[in-house]
Amino acid sequence: MAATPRSMPTAFIFLLCITTAAVGFDVPSLTFSEGFSHLFGNDNLIRSADGRSARLSLNRYSGSGFISSDLYDHGFFSASIKLPSDYTAGVVVAFYTSNGDIHPWTHDELDFEFLGNVREKDWRIQTNVFGNGSNTRGREERYLVPFDPTQEAHRYSILWTPDTIIFYIDDIPIREVVRTDDMGGEFPAKPMSVYATIWDGSAWATSYGRIKIDYKYEPYVAHFSDLALVGCRVDPIQQVDSADRCAEAVEELMSADYAILTPMKRAAMRRFRERYMIYSFCYDQHRYGNVTFPDCDYVSSERTRFGEWGDNKIPPKEVRGSKRRSLKTSAVEDVRPPE
Ligand SMILES: *[C@@H]1O[C@H](CO)[C@@H](O)[C@H](O)[C@H]1NC(C)=O
Ligand SMILES: *[C@@H]1O[C@H](CO)[C@@H](O)[C@H](O)[C@H]1NC(C)=O
Questions:
Q1: Domain spans in the chain, listed from the N-terminal domain onward
Q2: If you take atom 9 of ligand 1, which residue's CA is the nearest one?
Q3: Which end of the chain has fewer surrounding CB within 10 Å, N or C?
Q4: Cα(185) to centroid of ligand 2, in Å?
Q5: Residue whose CA is closest, atom 8 of ligand 1?
Q6: How far apart are CA 250 and CA 241, in angstroms?
């Protein structure tokens, strides 16, 4: 297991904070070995010489991934990511949190998933929230992006507090999930690890799995840098109840600037969603029937547009089935190292 910065002298941590504050947010970035461990894919994971970035590649033999060395009892997790360019249908790059290996039946998960596309079509970005094993009720949203994510790195961040989840692209909040009592256990509450992976998602990623990966274009390479893990660390082996010990860290988290949505940030979020959101589970009656999710902020203009969003055409039944099956296991099982 990699060394953790818990034992670092405070002065050094302070220095780290002021010298490597991540763009937009005042968070320290870590070197790979301070926060992460190799997860799978052997040589397909390559760290830079200074340890501040990592290259994840996917070829016909394997994808690759890394995982935080500790679990986190709430936190702010962030990385700058540059996605593979050109033909990327079937390729999935993911930056997410999960505890699926510890709680296989009641897992929690927060996802950024980047879905590749055929040449000259845009990548799409998906966010998802699972709480306490609610596998059959993925809370997915998908968006186009206002920039080309393959040209330069952009920062993707996930804030998770006991009250709220906020997904950020650069310093723009794009999604907020506020915990309501009605959500009950479906709001993620157990400590999670942070993952970064690249894998073959041919079964569902592009046009509902109709367009597959083409290994003629291998390797597919994603670059990760500005790695940041803020939150209360929980040792994966000695998983004692962390709530008391973490109370102070959680309070700090909840008063950080990225946890507070000012009216200006809220307006930016609304603008982003109006322009770029192409799918939301909230309106998906084909999949969920006529249910009302307690965490959905139903907006009548969104509901009206729902049928017009190109991404929401009803796919053939068998394709939807396989998409759902692999979604269930995607982030949880596909990232496990091969035996
Ligand atoms: C999580 O799910 C398990 C199994 O379904 C259930 O026993 C437990 O009460 C749930 N936890 C919460 C916080 O809802
Ligand atoms: C959905 O259910 C609500 C009440 O639960 C009902 O008023 C509404 O008409 C239903 N909509 C559809 C499309 O069935």
A1: 5-333
A2: 185
A3: C
A4: 25
A5: 185
A6: 14
| CA of 184 relative to ligand 2 center, distance in Å | 23
Query: How do residues 32-75 score in pLDDT, each as one tens digit?
Result: 999 999 999 999 999 999 999 999 999 999 999 999 999 999 99
Nearest-CA residue for ligand 1 atom 14 is 185
Omega within 30 of 0 (cis) for the link into 219: yes
- Tokens standing for residue 153: 């790195």
pLDDT tens per residue, range 99-151: 999 999 999 999 999 999 887 778 899 999 999 987 777 899 999 998 999 99
Residue range 5-333 in CATH 3.40.50.970: no
Annotated catalytic residue 140: no
Angle at 74 between CA 163 and CA 13, to 5 degrees: 130
Which residues contact residue 290 at a Cβ distance below 8 angstroms, ignoring those fewer than 6 apart?
none
- Quote the tokens at residue 77: 């997790």
Instruction: Give the 3-state DSSP-derived string for 181-225, with helices as H, strands as E and coil as C.
Output: HHHHHHCCCCCEEEEEEEEECCCCCCHHHCCCCCHHHCCEEEEEE
pTM for this model (two decimals): 0.83
Please choose from 102, 106, 130, 186 the residue to mutate so as to test ligand 1's pocket, defined by most ligand atoms within 8 A of CB. Answer: 106
Q: Is 80 in the pocket of ligand 1 (CB under 6 A)?
A: no
